[in-house]
Amino acid sequence: MEISREDLERLLDQLREVTSRLDRLERLLNDSEAPKKPAEPTTSWPTMPEPHAASSLRPTVAPRQMPGPRSANLEARIGSHWLNRVGIAAFLTAVAYFLKFAFENDWLGPSARVGTGVIAGILIVIWSERFRTRGYLIFSYSLKAVGIGALYLSLWASFQVYHLFPSTIVFLCMVGVTGTACVMALAEDAEILAWFAIAGGFSTPMLLSTGENREVALFSYLVLLDVGVVALAARKPWGRLLLLGFCGTLILYLTWYLEFYDIRLRETTLVFASIFFVIFALAPLITTSRPPAREVTRMAIAVLNAATYFLQAYVMLMEASRATMAAFTVLIAAGYLLLESFEGTGRGLEVGHKLRRIHLALALGFIIIAIPIRFENYWITLGWLVEAGVLLGVGNRIRSDLVQTCALAALLMAIARLLFVDNFEPGHLIFDLRSCLYGLAIILAAAVARNGSKRSDELGWTIGRVAALLMNVLALTALSLEVRDYYSGQLRLIRPAQVGGVIRAAEQVRSIQIARDFTYSALWMTYGAMLMAIGFWRASAFVRWQALLIIAVTTTKIFLYDTSQLDRIYRILSFAVLGMILLVISFAYQRDWLRFDQKAIRS
Q: Quick one: which of 3, 297, 446, 467 has the fewest CB in 10 Å?
């Protein structure tokens, strides 16, 4: 078998590399095994040794305090990083004072001043390469930062201070500085240089601002700059550049919006805002995630981008139409559903499981938000209930905890509106919109309770219990509201002129109020008894405790309120029904239908 010349040279190169590594390891091993000069001990002798304490004649050696590795690392960091930065700042300060002194004394004209700054910046960047080739990377990058900063400031002065060149030429020169810095960052694999370049790129519009509204030019430049940022983050594991690009874009956008935005610019502004949204929505998908800690940056970009874009659209579209904003919100949700289903393939297209879950959560969240934007009053509650039902079905089918969590969120918001916000006009008893909404909420709560009872984990068990409790709260509230509406309707029918005067009308009002209060007590006692029966039938202590709580509240009401307010016949009926229910429940416990005694013996 013949070996080609290229394979032989490659093999020899690998052999030389292995040999050099072995030599370095041997030198390190010899250095570690070399005898070290012992430190001179600090000796103290006793002045009056006791005869029986011969061991006290031994010298006691005080250990010498040696600096630990942490203090050495801190010292090295201060010496190499912070002193370097302070020294550069001091040097720049000296140069600034010298130039200021020279300008005040007219040593240099405007052109010479700008030229001096540009030449000095270029020379500093070139000079920094000498330190980089010798291994002084931190110092080299610091010098490059100084040189790049001098170039930006010199170009800014040429336009804003001395008016030597038009804005177009200066803008192109600044873009050239930004591009050159990006090329150096890629060539030297230096993320810090990329940060300097991107920061300079976002500073360019502010440095060249003339106070005029140039929306298309500004946002077109930002689009190109953002694409460049994403390209850098996709080529190198520099995910934090995305955060810098997002913040820079947001700052410039808000600065322009607060000063120049007008309703006549709504379409153009919304188009550019959508372009920015698409760029930073796709950016986490096409950037690398090495090291794993950079995943946090990608998640933050995904959430911040969604929230920012929605708020921008909300401000611009809500003044036009609620229906338009609701449709736009659903469109955003559809976009995130598309991103969630996106499967990355190839280099740099890695879609993490957490990122996909965030996209799905954002999609479902925007659907939830779209309902109150589009509808009003109790239609919001109905929309959330319908969405909760759909998400519960989908979540159970695909076995997704995230979808079920969003369903629970929609259900809880609907229940909260139903109990504390919605104000229904009295209508037909039982068969009205309020009863339908309460019935739908009870059915969904029962479904959640049933699903929770099938799960073996602690969280699922707790959610099932809370859902069962909410189901009973909703049912008892709905029935109580029906009682209230029925007697309210009876009270509205009373007319003093028709019943024989004001006194007769007051007596009828009092009679209806007494009947209403008795009905409340009877309803609650009956419901508590029904729950107790279910608790015995299902052998559920949780249900029985709910029944005991309802019966306790009803008992308190009867003894404290019904005794003094109800007529004699209603008072008798209240106590009779209460006593009968309590005796039946007591008898069930005394018969030990649940086998408490046998369970205690076995335990």
A: 3
**Residue 42, helix vs strand vs coil:** strand
Q: Is residue 13 part of a domain?
A: no
d(C-alpha 432, C-alpha 430), whole Å: 6
Check whether residue 385 and residue 354 sit in a common domain. Answer: no
Determine the Cα–Cα distance for residues 126 and 144; give it in Å rounded to an integer: 8
| Any domain includes 231 | no
Q: CA of 197: how far to CAs of 171, 252, 337, in Å? A: 15, 17, 35
Q: Is-cis flag, bond preceding 291, omega within 30?
A: yes
Element (H, E) at 110: helix 110-133
Kindly provide the residue ranges of all beta strands, DSSP E only, lying in 176-322, ordered along the sequence: none
Q: Name the β-bridge partners of 60.
A: 44
* 101-155 pLDDT, tens digit each: 666 676 667 788 788 888 888 988 898 888 888 887 877 888 888 888 888 888 8
**Residue 209 backbone dihedrals phi, psi, to 5 degrees:** -65, 135
Looking at the structure, tell me whether residues 352 and 221 fall in a common domain: yes
Q: How far from 57 is each of 39, 47, 54, 61, 269, CA to CA, in Å?
A: 21, 10, 6, 12, 90
- Distance in angstroms (rounded) separating the CA atoms of residues 549 and 531: 10
Contact 279, 230 (CB under 8 A): yes
Number of structural domains (the chain) is: 4
- Which residue range forms the structural domain that includes residue 424? 379-493
Q: Are residues 246 and 370 in the same domain?
A: yes
State both tokens at 78.
């201060």
What are 337-383's pLDDT values in tens digits? Answer: 988 876 543 344 444 677 888 999 999 999 999 999 999 888 999 99
Rounded Cα distance between 467 and 461, Å, is 10
